[in-house]
Structures are given as structure tokens and as C-alpha cells.
Design goal:
Shape: globular
Radius of gyration: 11 Å
Strand content: 15-25%
Structural class: mainly beta
Number of domains: 1
Largest sheet: 2 strands, antiparallel
Number of strands: 4
Distance between the termini: 23 Å
Number of helices: 1
Helix content: under 10%
């Protein structure tokens, strides 16, 4: 399965979400439906906060 680069524009893909880092509120995090479904970890480029969980 192909990894999705967070820098890739995926705005036309169904189920994509974009949100500001829940810790610092500065960096934008983009998550595809697939990433959310299988709980792929993300890391904020600004403060190194990681989620989910």
C-alpha cells in the first residue's frame, strides 16, 4: 500500500480532514480517511506532538 505524503494535496479525496495541532495550534495536520481508520500516528512539525492516543 502506498504511503500518503502529508504535503500532498488531498482536498478532493473523500474523507480527508485538516486540523491545527491540538497541542500548539500552529501546524496544520492532514489525515486521509484511511489513515484515520487504521490509526496511523502523526507528528506535529512545530512542537513534535504525536497522536492519535
Amino acid at each position: 500500500m502506498e504511503k500518503t505524503n502529508p504535503e500532498t494535496k488531498v482536498t478532493n479525496e473523500k474523507g480527508v480532514t485538516r486540523f491545527k495541532c491540538p497541542n500548539c495550534g500552529k501546524a496544520e495536520i492532514v489525515r486521509t480517511k484511511h489513515q484515520r481508520r487504521i490509526a496511523v500516528k502523526y507528528k506535529c512539525k512545530n512542537c513534535s506532538f504525536s497522536g492519535p492516543n
